[in-house]
């Protein structure tokens, strides 16, 4: 899968820009605050129908404008597909695929699979369990339509259950029949989601270890463990056992909404024992593993967006990473960097072609990348 | 919109409060009435007033009714051994329209949804229980929407009614009649496959 053309209108600090990516390696260079990340987020938005950085639509529109429009031409196998996002916050949000309006955005997500790696991702190790569940859910939703449907149903039921628990908490003699009825409905979605998450993490672990070896300078053992109450007892018993506690507290204490991921390095918790470098390598390896699983499951190369990945890395590590990214394991890769010449020089040394854009104050200028003799190296 | 007459404005505002009617349609209706004879408007107002003053809900099934007991509950020819539980009055009308059901109804008046603050005590469930306790009732057929709230209500009712010796059934769910498989949505088609039925040989189409 190759993103060939990207058009931005009123997107963040871009008034209007058209970028052509006639290569599988795309380099976006520019100083801080020029809009490199905005280009990556535009690609992410077109694939996932929302910003990776959790920004609301009205914060994505260029200052003093009322709408934004994103457009892309993507080559998928022999097919060339067009996707357009037209968003006027408060009025409409429309996705058009090959000229037809997408009726349900949840059905569209996953059409163009994507994985993004951003500097703030290291927070995954520190923040609450919610961000790690979101990582899991986003990954599974791109490959499994049923997962998303079950997740929506589960969320609705859990909300009903918590409302009921709050109402029953101040009741002298609560009617438990309704609680039983809701619990019964929770069984199916809970089991389904748990099973898929477990399967996913099992498949992810060998890839995580493999990519950690590739991206980290030292050789540590890394792993990611799925933590869930459902691993130790089934949902029926769990809900029954915690029922009186739930009634006393007024919310649900058992179930997959408490699932978490436990990141480990040499058997010890990552967030306490990893250095900054190890942490960064771990998260990158995790994302690359996620990328690889996505590609295998979808039988196509997904897009890989790497924001500021080479920041503070020495030339040797940058070369090492680029060698990996240029291998057959990866499809089209987008890289941002603050240095205009460093990465291009390394890529030329590796005898590979690439596309470079210089991003300056919301404009994109193509840079001639006449590289080493264009040999058969290029895919 | 500005109206030359306060009286017209009042009437338009009142009509525009009705579902499906905006200010423009309301104005059209009002101007139509103005053109007609005054008696016609009086008859309309009279019909509405009488309807609103005298309409009530059936003491037994809570369906809408002119009398204390609705025409369905009062009909001696109907099968009293089966009660069909529905969410609202419109569901009764829809099922009656099919002509396939000859039993009685019970209108709950909503679905259980703790988020909306609707609990079992807000629905006509106690009266359903006392009806089901009658010896002639053999079957309770639940015809509730296949939504999360519909299912919650159904499971709840099933638990409440489990102590009675009645058969609990639910309407079949799946691919719509006359619909084509390729156009059915995944969820519906999936449920139809999970809830598949044994194929019956030689019994014809009309075994209910």
Q: Could you walk me through the main structural features you see in this protein, from its secondary elements to its overall organization?
A:
The complex is a heterodimer of chains A (379) and B (208). With 379 residues, chain A is an alpha/beta fold. The relative contact order of chain A is 0.17. In chain A, helix 4 runs parallel beside helix 6. Helix content of chain A is 41%, strand content 23%. Chain A folds into 2 domains: 193 residues, P-loop containing nucleotide triphosphate hydrolases (Rossmann fold); 174 residues, RecF/RecN/SMC, N-terminal domain (Glutathione S-transferase Yfyf (Class Pi), Chain A, domain 2, Up-down Bundle), CATH 1.20.1050. A 6-stranded antiparallel β-sheet of chain A has the order 2-1-4-5-6-7, with helices on one face. With 208 residues, chain B is α/β, with parallel strands linked by helices. Chain B folds into 2 domains: 49 residues, Helicase, Ruva Protein, domain 3, CATH 1.10.8.420; 129 residues, Dna Topoisomerase Vi A Subunit, Chain: A, domain 2, CATH 3.40.1360.10. At the A-B interface, helix 4 and helix 5 of A face helix 7 of B.
Number of strands of chain B: 6
Task: Assign the CATH topology of the largest domain in chain A.
Answer: Rossmann fold
Per DSSP, what share of the residues of chain B sits in E-state strands of 2 or more residues?
5-15%
CATH topology of the largest domain in chain B: Dna Topoisomerase Vi A Subunit, Chain: A, domain 2
CATH class of the largest domain in chain B: Alpha Beta
Query: Strand count, sense and closure of the main sheet of chain B?
Result: 4 strands, parallel
SSE arrangement of chain A, N to C: EEEHEEEEHEHHHEHEEHHEHEHEE
> What's the main sheet of chain A like?
6 strands, antiparallel
Structural class of chain B: alpha/beta
Query: Oligomeric state of the chains?
Result: heterodimer
Number of strands of chain A: 15
Name the helicity range of chain B: 40-55%
Q: Which strands sit side by side, in order, in the main sheet of chain A?
A: 2-1-4-5-6-7
Distance between the termini of chain B: 57 Å
**Count of alpha and pi helical runs of chain A:** 10
* Mean of all residue-level pLDDT scores of chain A: 91
> What is the CATH superfamily classification of the largest domain in chain A?
P-loop containing nucleotide triphosphate hydrolases
Proportion of beta-strand residues of chain A: 15-25%
Please mark out the parts of chain A with pLDDT under 50 across 5 or more consecutive residues, or reply none.
372-379
